[in-house]
Amino acid sequence: MPPSRIPYASGVTSSTFRCGSCDQQHDGPPFAYAVPAPAYWSSDLEQRPGNVLEAEQCKIGDHFFLRARLVLPVLDAEEDFEWGVWISVSAPSYDRIVEMWGNPDRAEEPPYFGWLSNELPLYEPSTLELKTKLHTQPLGIRPLVELEPTDHPLAVEQRTGVTMARVREIAEWHLHL
Ligand SMILES: [Zn+2]
Fold first, then answer.
1. 25 CA from centroid of ligand 1 (Å)
2. What is the distance in angstroms between the CA of the first residue and the CA of the last residue of the chain?
3. Alpha carbon of 28 to ligand 1 centroid (Å)
4. pTM, 2 dp
5. Rg of the chain's alpha carbons, rounded to an integer?
């Protein structure tokens, strides 16, 4: 399946910052961005049977995806930064997750193996198909992504944290696409 690029939706914010790109004040920087679909999704898939994109779950043929939160600690802020991403899991994992969806015991499930299924901006090499563990959370809370502890820049950021300078850099990229 070829990856497709999809625009981002940014989180809500109440402050402003001076932009290093255009030198204007902008709202933010936001601490959360959400990718609306797996990289492999495209609108023409919707017309064909067997493909479903919902708020938390996605199915493309024999491939199964879950919406999840990839959290990066922000060392010099009170808040964490969050990439809203999609994780590809195996059919047995997907079946189990769906079976446990409304069960309060789901937070006790062992983590599921999954592949990061989005190409996040500003990372080189690509974040697509990084290995992850998906940790189910209590009811009403999206699962958390734990990246394999490699030296990929995103995995390093998750382990060691980022600074507000990086959060602003991400905001500037989204503002000046
Ligand atoms: Zn700007």
1. 7
2. 25
3. 11
4. 0.91
5. 17
How many residues comprise the chain? 177
55 near 131, Cβ under 8 Å? Answer: no
DSSP string, the chain: --------EE-----EEE-TTT-SEEE---SEEE-SS-TT--GGGGGSTTEEE-SSEEEETTEEEEEEEEEE-BTTSSSPEEEEEEEEE-HHHHHHHHHTTT-GGGGGSPPEEEEE----TT-SS--TT-EEEEE--STTSPPEEEE-SSS-HHHHHHHH-B-HHHHHHHHHHHHT-
CA–centroid distance, residue 29 to ligand 1 (Å): 11
For ligand 1, the distance from its centroid to the CA atom of residue 24, given in whole angstroms, is 6
Q: How far is the CA of 170 from the centre of ligand 1 (A)?
A: 11
For ligand 1, the distance from its centroid to the CA atom of residue 162, given in whole angstroms, is 21
Q: What tens digit of pLDDT does each residue of 35-90 get?
A: 999 999 998 998 899 999 999 999 999 999 999 999 999 999 999 999 999 999 99
In the chain, what are the domain boundaries? 16-42+49-175
Rounded Cα distance between 173 and 69, Å, is: 20
Q: Report the separation in Å between the CA atom of 18 and the middle of ligand 1, taken as the mean of its atom positions.
A: 8
Q: Find, among 148, 156, 146, the residue nearest to 124 by Cα.
A: 156
